[in-house]
């Protein structure tokens, strides 16, 4: 049995969802693409918050929600119009409501005047509604627990048998919403399929109307070899129980009615199920007293003897089969999922070890064992994928904070900015979502603060006064790619270059491409606070953003076009915990590097390598020159390969388009590795991303390729020690 | 005098927190068999299968609201006799009238205490033992 605190938590979880609904719904309405359903959903969300708040005694929340709800009610009933101004008031009210929820949740005392500005705006809208209608008297306070004026006599259950009593003919049409049964026969003819009408879709539509029970007549089905795909062999008969109007049922077959044998006959439900529960129930227009609300006679009861329970019991056996499942989602504590994820991780490790043992068995003994092991590997991979997908959440969870951020920033800076969001349903591991919020907020803040110009400047430049920031997420090549694209002023590359030179971050004669210049703003040491806003107009903390992204195994890159805007791209791994790795050896040490970073591997000859003072050499590859990085040198390990002819060079992609050749002693094969964090024990170690346990049971470090390339790449750019620097 | 422990009750509300509150309150007055549904449609699934002694339903729900649920119940050959109490969050005259016409047995305004719930239930079911 749940206790109060758990219930409160559940309520606040519901509020979080409700807030999302409100924000999304109002935004849709503001942008003009909403349906009737949208306003209803928003209304219900606010209503739910109010209801729950009342139960748990959050008075301030109840009161504000009540006023909010009243306006929404007016809009959905049509007595209020959703003008842009009104919707803006509603959006602001949503923000206030959200704040009130958070304050209620954290137990913060709420100042009595909190949200009064928003509330007055709402009340003004309500007044304008009443003025228009001639002043219906809603006093704007939440209904008291018992309301006066409605005298309702409870109807006791004893001997209760109700038949609907219409007060006016048009008020409550005869059994309009009662359930009726129809016997349906549906036999498509050849013409129907030739016109590309698919019976399955029709049956699906039918099923949406109510309880559908169909049997397929399959006697005419030939053997598979004789089956002609566009000829109908199957017909269906059965019943549909629905409260939908006959017209709706006919509508389902609208386009195919001439091309099939169709019969829809209403049947008396009493005859459909063996009736031993009393009288037949053709609804009678009884001679019972009308319900008059001010002086209230009780509804007269009918004369049937059987009680509800007995009747139900008696006919239980006649019920049609299989209830639909009550819900297709469920709430699980995150801890439980994390435990399963860990277990799967251990399973992957154990399985790798098993693989190792099998490999080491003498030739010829392992045949069957290998086979079965392959199956186990396959199943484990599927298990891992399923488990990972349990932790997946749509990025919308993070994205949905952005509209409010943009609204507040535009107001503060006086700029007109529109936020477009795409791909909110793209799914990403939960842990990434949690770490994505801050960097993304920072990037968008920069876009609005520094990227998008003031309306006057934009107009002068021939642009639309309203700037656009587009936030998009999609899956691309095994990663999640998130882009923030703005149509602002872009980066001032001359100034960035100049400042970078001044700060000694790049050598004075270095020649950099446009892209490389843009990426300079992410270097540590670039963004010292007092200089930034003059110079690039951007970059407060961009290096922090970059390290945040790298910490979760992602990459960030910038592309800027002067005067046209800027694109920031984040590429994140789909999951944090398991990765495809290449096992490599240097000397007696084994390391793992991410397979996704490897472009190709080769064994160059002496002649392919150009010695260059200050570096480990440059590799000639198909016309390009790539810097070489000797892993042994970098990590201070004696290489086993005496002659560089025996070394393997792994062409590695370090992100942002830069590549280098990593020199190692040998490649040992690739395997799936479970990523185990070492941060708790060792903190952040440059060059090492994490650790794992190999198939042979030994621990190996996973290399951090981007950090390595920072540490090692020659004198042309980058801070940090380069042991071979001249 | 119905025995509270023997009663089978269906609680319908789209908000989990409200369902749980209602459940707790029902348990306080001695009721043990409590079914739950999130909206009228799910409620109908249960009402069509399970023997029920009482239905307590919210009005404001997606897919099928409380009023339509009530009408569906009243139109169902078996479930139609099950006593129905409607929960409403607003003092809505119109709703109460429509509900009365559709055959509701009693109504409750949120938020409610255990005492009020018990009173409303007993008004319909008789004194609970």
Task: Set out the fold topology.
The complex is a heterodimer of chains A (726) and B (129).
Chain A: H1 4-30, H2 36-56, H3 59-77, H4 84-106, H5 116-133, E1 180-188, H6 190-194, H7 199-209, E2 210-217, E3 235-242, H8 246-252, E4 260-267, H9 269-272, H10 308-315, H11 334-360, H12 367-390, E5 392-394, H13 396-399, H14 402-413, E6 417-422, E7 427-429, H15 430-451, H16 455-460, E8 467-476, E9 479-486, H17 493-502, H18 514-520, H19 529-532, H20 542-551, E10 555-561, E11 565-573, E12 578-586, E13 589-594, E14 598-602, E15 609-610, E16 618-621, E17 624-630, H21 631-635, E18 648-653, E19 659-664, E20 666-674, H22 679-682, E21 688-693, E22 699-703, H23 705-712
Parallel strand pairs in A: 6-8, 13-22, 17-19
Antiparallel strand pairs in A: 1-3, 1-4, 2-3, 5-7, 8-9, 9-11, 10-11, 12-13, 12-20, 14-18, 15-16, 16-17, 18-19, 21-22
Chain B: E1 8-12, H1 16-28, E2 33-37, H2 40-49, E3 54-58, H3 66-75, E4 84-88, H4 93-102, E5 106-109, H5 114-125
Parallel strand pairs in B: 1-2, 1-3, 3-4, 4-5
Write a structural description.
- The complex is a heterodimer of chains A (726) and B (129).
- In chain A, 39% of the residues lie in helices and 20% in strands.
- In chain A, a hairpin with a 2-residue loop joins strand 8 and strand 9 (479-486).
- Chain A starts with a helix and ends in a 14-residue tail after the last helix.
- Chain B has 129 residues and is α/β, with parallel strands linked by helices.
- Chain B has a five-stranded parallel beta sheet, with helices on both faces.
- Chain B contains five helices and five strands.
- Chain B is globular, with a radius of gyration of 13 Å.
- Helices cover 43% and strands 19% of the residues of chain B.
- In chain B, helix 3 links the parallel strand 3 (54-58) and strand 4 (84-88).
- Chains A and B meet through helix 1, helix 2 and helix 10 of A and helix 1, helix 2, helix 3, helix 4 and strand 5 of B.
């Amino acid at each position: 049995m749940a206790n109060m605190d758990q219930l409160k938590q559940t309520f606040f979880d519901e509020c979080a969802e409700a807030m999302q609904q409100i924000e999304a719904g109002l935004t849709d309405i503001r942008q003009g693409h909403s349906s009737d359903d949208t306003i209803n959903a928003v209304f219900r969300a606010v209503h739910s918050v109010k209801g729950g708040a009342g139960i748990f005694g959050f008075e301030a929340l109840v009161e504000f929600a009540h006023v909010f709800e009243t306006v929404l009610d007016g809009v959905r009933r049509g007595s209020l119009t959703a003008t842009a101004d009104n919707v803006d008031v509603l959006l602001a009210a949503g923000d206030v409501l959200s704040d009130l929820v958070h304050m209620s949740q954290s137990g913060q005392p709420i100042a009595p005047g909190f949200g009064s500005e928003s509330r007055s705006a709402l009340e003004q809208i309500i007044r304008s509604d009443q003025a228009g209608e001639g002043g219906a008297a809603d006093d704007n306070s939440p209904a008291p627990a018992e309301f006066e004026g409605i005298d309702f006599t409870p109807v006791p259950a004893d001997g209760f048998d109700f038949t609907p009593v219409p007060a006016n003919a048009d008020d409550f049409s005869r059994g309009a919403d009662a359930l009726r049964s129809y016997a349906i026969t549906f036999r498509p003819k050849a013409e129907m399929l030739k016109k590309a009408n698919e019976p399955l879709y029709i049956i699906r539509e039918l099923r949406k109307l109510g309880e559908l029970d169909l049997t397929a007549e399959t006697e005419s089905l030939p053997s598979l070899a004789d089956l002609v795909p566009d000829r109908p062999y199957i017909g269906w008969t059965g019943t549909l129980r629905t409260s939908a109007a006959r017209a709706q049922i006919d509508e389902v077959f609208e386009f195919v009615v001439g091309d099939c044998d169709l019969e829809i006959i209403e049947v008396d439900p009493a005859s459909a199920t063996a009736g031993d529960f009393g009288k037949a129930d053709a609804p009678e227009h009884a001679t019972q007293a009308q319900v008059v609300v001010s002086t209230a006679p009780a509804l007269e009861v009918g004369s049937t003897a059987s009680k509800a329970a007995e009747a139900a019991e008696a006919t239980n056996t006649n019920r049609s089969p299989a209830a639909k499942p009550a819900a297709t989602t469920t709430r699980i504590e995150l801890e439980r999922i994390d435990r399963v994820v860990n277990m799967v991780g251990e399973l992957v490790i154990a399985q790798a070890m098993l693989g190792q043992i099998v490999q080491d068995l003498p030739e010829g003994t392992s045949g069957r064992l290998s086979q079965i092991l392959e199956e186990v590997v396959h199943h484990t991979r599927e298990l891992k994928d399923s488990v990972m997908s349990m932790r997946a959440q749509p990025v919308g969870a993070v994205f949905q904070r952005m509209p409010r951020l943009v609204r507040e920033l535009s107001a503060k800076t006086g700029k007109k900015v529109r936020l477009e969001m795409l791909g909110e349903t793209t799914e990403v591991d939960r842990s990434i979502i949690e770490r994505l919020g801050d960097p993304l907020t920072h990037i968008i803040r920069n876009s609005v603060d520094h990227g998008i110009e003031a309306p006057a400047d934009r107009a002068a430049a021939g642009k639309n006064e309203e700037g656009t920031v587009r936030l998009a997420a999609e899956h691309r090549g095994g990663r999640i790619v998130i882009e923030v694209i703005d149509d602002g002023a872009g980066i001032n590359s001359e100034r960035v270059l100049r400042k970078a030179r001044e700060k000694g971050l790049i050598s004075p004669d270095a020649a950099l491409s446009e892209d490389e210049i843009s990426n300079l703003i992410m270097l540590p040491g670039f963004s010292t606070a007092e200089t930034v806003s003059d110079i690039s107009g951007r970059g407060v903390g961009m290096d922090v953003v970059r390290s945040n992204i790298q910490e979760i195994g992602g990459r960030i890159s910038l592309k800027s076009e002067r005067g046209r805007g800027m694109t920031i791209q984040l590429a994140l791994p789909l999951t944090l915990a398991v990765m495809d790795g290449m096992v490599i050896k240097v000397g007696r040490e084994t390391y793992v590097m991410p397979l996704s970073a490897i472009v190709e591997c080769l064994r160059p000859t002496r002649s392919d390598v150009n010695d260059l003072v200050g570096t480990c050499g440059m590799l000639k590859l198909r016309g390009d020159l790539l810097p070489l990085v000797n892993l042994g040198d970098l990590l201070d390990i004696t290489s086993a390969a005496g002659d560089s002819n025996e070394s393997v060079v792994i062409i590695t992609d370090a992100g942002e388009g830069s590549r280098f050749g990593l020199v190692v002693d040998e490649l040992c094969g690739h395997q799936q590795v479970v990523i185990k964090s070492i941060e708790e024990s060792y903190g952040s170690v440059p060059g090492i991303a994490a650790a794992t346990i190999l198939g042979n049971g030994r621990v190996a470090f996973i290399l951090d390729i981007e950090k390595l390339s920072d540490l090692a790449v020659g004198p042309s750019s980058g801070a940090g020690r380069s042991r071979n620097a001249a | 005098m119905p025995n509270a422990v023997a009663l089978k009750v269906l609680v319908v509300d789209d908000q989990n927190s409200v369902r749980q509150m209602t459940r707790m309150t029902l348990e306080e007055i001695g009721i043990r068999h409590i079914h739950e549904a999130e909206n009228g449609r799910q409620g109908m699934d249960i009402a069509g299968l399970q023997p029920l002694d009482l239905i307590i339903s919210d009005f404001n729900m997606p897919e099928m609201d409380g009023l339509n649920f009530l009408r569906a119940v009243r139109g169902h050959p078996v479930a139609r006799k099950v006593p129905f109490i409607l929960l409403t969050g607003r003092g809505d005259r119109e709703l109460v009238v429509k509900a009365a016409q559709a055959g509701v047995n009693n109504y409750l305004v949120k938020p409610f205490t255990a005492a009020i719930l018990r009173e409303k239930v007993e008004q319909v079911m008789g004194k609970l033992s």
